[in-house]
Amino acid sequence: MSKPKVVILGGGYAGLMAASRLARQQVADVVLLDQSPYFEQRIRYHQVLAGTSVPRGPLAHWLRPAGVSFAHRAVTAIEPEKRRLLTTAGPIDYDFLVVTTGSRIDSSSIPGAPEHSHSLNSQNQCQTLAPSIQQLAQTGGRLLLVGGGLTQLETATELANRHPSLHITLLSSHNPFKNFAPKAEQYFRNHLQQARITLLEDHRALEVQQGVCRTSQGALPFDLCLCAPGFKASPIVNRITDQLDEHGRAKVSDTLQLIGDDRIWIAGDSAAFPWQGPSPLRMGCAVALPMGAQAGENVAAMIKGNDPTPFSFGFLIRCVSLGRKAGVVQTTQGDDKAKKRVFTGAAGAWIKERVCRMTFNIPRWELATGLRLYRWPSVPAIHQDIQRSVIDSAEG
Ligand SMILES: Cc1cc2nc3c(=O)[nH]c(=O)nc-3n(C[C@H](O)[C@H](O)[C@H](O)COP(=O)(O)OP(=O)(O)OC[C@H]3O[C@@H](n4cnc5c(N)ncnc54)[C@H](O)[C@@H]3O)c2cc1C
User: Fold this and answer.
1) Residue 249 Cα to ligand 1 middle (Å)
2) Residues 257-260: contacts with CB within 8 Å, 24+ apart?
3) Are residues 303 and 155 in the same domain?
4) Which residues have any ligand 1 atom within 6 Å of their CB?
5) What is the model's pLDDT at position 22?
6) Distance between CA atoms of 349 and 148, rounded to whole angstroms?
7) Domain containing 146 — which CATH number?
8) Can you give the CATH number for the domain in which 314 is found?
9) Which of 88, 143, 232, 316 is deepest in the core (most CB within 10 A)?
């Protein structure tokens, strides 16, 4: 009897973990599709921009030992009623579909930003832009980073570390450290000062024009502008549902199945998971890896006639690199609320680097060995933290 066909759409952190967990059970013919032939380490894009060479994972080569086929193509539409994908190289049918198409930095909420600024959305793009940044540094040019999230913080500090002569300004509509413990906040502020990065808080970008950004507090001229006001889920999920959250993520059940179609599973940055914490589950490879693994396990369970397992996850730490020599590791409750303990400086950088290496090696090693090497903290261990936060926020 032929096995059911499972198509995994997207070879990022979530897609590779789904492929690994599904393939090891040998219950399906698994095909993974991606528009790129490589697994890219998105979490190191700022390093690429700073001129560092960052390895990529050749998808066909990584997937082969696990018996997963790779198809290099972009998906242009999904037709759930026909269980079919339309791709740049023709249609592909499926019995089960796992959507792990991730997200992109979306600057379209700021008028003029897509035309007059750059966003870090692919390794090639970062590589292409790197010489311009270097040239700018040689002339002591002005670099403006719009957006006060962790991506921009890592980018600003990485570039200051590599190119100390750049004049870097980081623009944020809020306090970028508000979700960190006081010790971490103090460390971040001191580090930015030492790195001569100007942080402008309570500045909302209203419009980006050629060479100038209009903000709620006045105009800021720049030579080059990088915008990262937030992530938006890859638009392909629009094709399968109109039940999306504010980040364009498709709403899923607690077992990661698309609401209304239990043959479609969604994991990683594309999934709006019914998280019990005080704020929506943030997008990150820290979440994409376990979600992808759970989606793969659940598809295999369904094929075997077993019940899928609800996804259960809790945070432990939040890691931020500040160039290559410093970092901040904030310990957290399961619901991502900051605890008191913080690792800073070289210790923070060391931990962050190990975490980054782990995110590259774990999918590769699992696919190569067929072993379940990756484990993640689940909710029972953090249940009380989450309950406490929900009560705290309900009580204001
Ligand atoms: C500079 C930077 C630093 C970051 N640092 C951190 C960090 O420190 N910690 C953390 O947890 N997160 C971090 N993130 C976020 C993290 O990279 C993402 O949350 C993570 O990559 C999401 O994983 P994913 O598997 O859902 O999707 P992705 O990694 O985005 O992979 C999606 C895949 O789907 C493919 N795809 C998309 N659409 C199509 C299509 N139509 N057809 C075919 N293929 C398609 C893409 O080519 C890609 O390979 C950072 C992001 C950036 C940009």
Assistant:
1) 13
2) 257/298, 257/308, 258/99
3) no
4) 10-15, 33-36, 42-43, 45-46, 74-75, 100-103, 120, 151, 154, 234, 236, 268-269, 283-286, 288, 319
5) 98
6) 20
7) 3.50.50.60
8) 3.50.50.100
9) 143
Q: Which atom of ligand 1 lies nearest, measured to the CA of 289?
A: 25
CA–CA dist 226, 327 (Å, integer)? 22
Instruction: Count the neighbouring beta carbons within 10 Å of the beta carbon of residue 40.
Output: 23
- Which ligand 1 atom sits nearest the alpha carbon of residue 16? 25
pLDDT over 90 at 390, yes or no? no
Number of domains, the chain: 2
Residue 279 binned pLDDT confidence (cut-offs 50, 70, 90): confident
Using DSSP's 3-state secondary structure scheme, residue 230 falls into coil
Per-residue pLDDT at 396 exceeds 60 = no
Sequence-distant (≥ 6) Cβ neighbours of residue 110 within 8 angstroms:
146, 205, 206, 207, 208, 227, 229
User: What are the E-state strand segments in 100-251?
Assistant: 103-105, 142-146, 167-171, 197-200, 205-209, 212-215, 218-221, 224-227, 231-233, 250-251
Structural domain of residue 32, as residue ranges? Answer: 5-105+231-394
Q: How confident is the model at residue 395 (pLDDT cuts 50, 70, 90)?
A: very low
Q: Where are the alpha helices (DSSP H) in 6-102?
A: 13-23, 45-49, 59-63
Q: What pLDDT shows up at residue 389?
A: 53
